Backbone:
């Protein structure tokens, strides 16, 4: 165990934990847009910056990547931290001025709704955090989406921006997207789901009769696990 101080509170943390993990365990909230328990931290959004003081040195670091250390002093809301966080958010807002999630975060940080930097004319909601790409690859194991282009044109999409043949319609990328960029639509009856330009037929649960998963996803799970697809036809609530 190591002893450190976060926001003037003495904290005991496990060696190897990050500052963000130690803070969370102690009820200290550090804002982030790119952290999820299923994924390794990546430091992509830069909103989780904190100020650390070790000996005579102070620096601003990303708390999702920086490990705790004996005697470390951490400030999560110092003026320096808030300045960096506001700048990062203003840059994100310039790229994604229509993202409701970013607007709400800006309000929490006391940032004016008018963007400080010229808004992107393409009006994308993608903050390029790679959460969707990493989830599809590392959690789902499919790799149906990736980045294309560079610089300001960079965006997440299916290969060649065509309907992805490997997508199974699981929707995991849309669930983890922190800025509402990935659109997933379900019909009123629930019998079909559209994502990344493809429409997937949904399967009904053989116990409760509700639509619960795309057929393609169940076939994929069956192939991966060897469990017959008929045995996967029960939703999580009825299992
Ligand atoms: S919906 Fe398609 S692109 Fe999104 S995580 Fe699932 S397989 Fe990947």
Residues:
């Amino acid at each position: 165990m190591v002893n450190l101080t976060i926001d003037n509170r003495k904290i005991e943390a496990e060696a190897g934990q990050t500052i963000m993990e130690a803070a969370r365990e102690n009820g200290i909230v550090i804002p982030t847009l790119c952290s999820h328990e299923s994924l390794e931290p990546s430091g992509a959004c830069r909103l989780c910056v904190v100020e650390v003081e070790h000996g005579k040195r102070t620096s601003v670091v990303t708390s999702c990547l920086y490990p705790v250390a004996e005697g470390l002093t951490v400030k999560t809301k110092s003026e320096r931290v808030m300045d960096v966080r506001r700048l990062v958010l203003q840059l994100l807002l310039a790229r994604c001025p229509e993202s409701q999630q970013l607007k709400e975060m800006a309000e929490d940080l006391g940032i004016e709704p008018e963007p400080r930097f010229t808004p992107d004319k393409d009006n994308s909601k993608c903050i390029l955090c790679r959460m969707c790409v990493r989830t599809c690859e590392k959690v789902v194991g499919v790799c149906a989406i990736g980045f294309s282009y560079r610089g300001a044109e960079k965006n997440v999409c299916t290969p060649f921006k065509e309907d992805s043949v490997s997508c199974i319609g699981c929707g995991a990328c849309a669930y983890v997207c922190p800025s509402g960029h990935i659109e997933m639509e379900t019909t009123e009856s629930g019998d079909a789901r559209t994502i990344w330009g493809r429409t997937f037929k949904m399967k009904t649960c053989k116990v409760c009769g509700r639509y619960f998963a795309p057929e393609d996803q169940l076939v994929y799970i069956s192939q991966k696990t060897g469990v017959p697809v008929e045995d996967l036809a029960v939703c999580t609530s009825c299992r």
Notes: The longest helix spans residues 79-95. The first strand starts at residue 2 and ends at 6. Residues 135-136, 140, 142, 144-145, 167-173, 195-196 surround iron/sulfur cluster (CB under 6 Å).
